[in-house]
Amino acid sequence: MRFCRKVKSGDAEPGTRAGLKAVPAEAWIMLLAVAARLPRLFSRPLWYDEAFAVLFSEKGPSAMLYGTLTEQGGVAADVHPLGYYTLLWAWENAFGTSPASVRSLSLLLGLLSLYLAFLLVEELFDRATARRALFALALAPFPIHYAQEVRMYALLAAAVIAATLLLVKAFHEPGRWMYWIGFALCAAAAQYTHNLAFLYLVPLSITALFMRDRRIVLRTIAAGIGALLLYAPWLLHVPGQLARLQWAYWIERPGWEELLQALLHFTSALPAPDWALPPLLFFSLSLLLVSAVETVRAARRGEKKIRQALFVLFLALSPLAGMMLISQWQPVFLLRALLPAAMLFTVWLVWSLWQESLPGLVRGAALAMLGLSYALGMYGWIAYNGFPYAPFDDINAYLQEHSREGDVIVHSNKLTAFPCLYDDASLDHRYLADPPGSASDTLAPATQEVLEQLAMEDLSDILETDGDVWLVMFEQEEEEYHTAGFPGHPARQTLAERFSLSEYIDFDAVTVFHYTR
Q: Structural domain boundaries of the chain?
């Protein structure tokens, strides 16, 4: 008995009309998705994670392997596999490292994940539902955010949704061995993109049991073994990367607050203005309630597509549940890694809100709340300029104009240093090391060596300089030290003993302090 038999209801639509009417609706929706992803795509300076991705990937595969897998005391240098970084390296060799170039890769991957989601929904439901889901995903702030960042999450979403589509197709046509091979390849690609991909792939594979077909179960197991064999060379190094998490990492054990944040990401996005959080939470909980009630009602009346809807809902919620469970032992709660699950959650919302039994007034109110959630999420994303974002290009321009030969530019940590280095490598940017073993100590010596940017243990090397010192730091750092009971940042205290503070200049969330003798 199949739970996702392919039934298409939109295939009979005429497609031979002349002019613009001949263009399928999904093509116009994809153009809308492109337009929604353009604001701030190239205008926002790269922040630390993005700058690190570019600076690291341009070193090449062999250097990246050294900077990731080199162990010190049984702890790997970095926690991410190299699938995305290797793809970015190839992309940079072809198109360069400008913000427009490196972010365009994420844009294309994000659009690919949308189209794959459209094909998946069409396979599970029908073309009308697929178009509605594509329209919602085109405007959803969470996928838009990570289609604009130089990080691996758009690739993760594309690989995971491709694996889902191919496995569903294999369920429908078990004799087509190409679907099984494709699933294995995409599953392995997802794992090479992010180590947390298994939180999605394991539940996806388990769904084969509900097919009640011994042949499908056995072939799913075989395809899973194939994916595992493809991933085996990296799997050998995962214990060292896990040890890195246990030794020092910034992720904390999640609680109810993180669950609510996940819901807000699934229906909108964060960060959002403080005044927008109460309505966003109300909208999210209301949408969840309406969709859950409608799903229960559909199950009770034997709706023919209920098994498909439950399949999508299971894949949307199981990664979140798995992440919460594992994080009680080892915190791995990373909201952006839930991007594929959030996209499927949107599919479930769309399906439930278009059930015929749902009163039109309720549907209209729910769609209005979803639209307002999207609008508030996009406003928050476009307007936000706080930590960890800053006008690093303006900071470099100011330092180029005002610093002199012999001056020293030092950053309180890597979070401002690497974006400035990416923007202007002609300036000698130095940075202080993170406290060893602290939550922020994520840049291992081997990775620093590959980047050719070694952290300074303290300020002793620059205290005897004849020139001025320019200290760059996020305002949030100073606030954290004040909150902890310290008079200020230790670097400022040390510099005050040898230098005089001449001036300080605010650049949104970053302050540049100018010290002279």
A: 24-383, 392-516
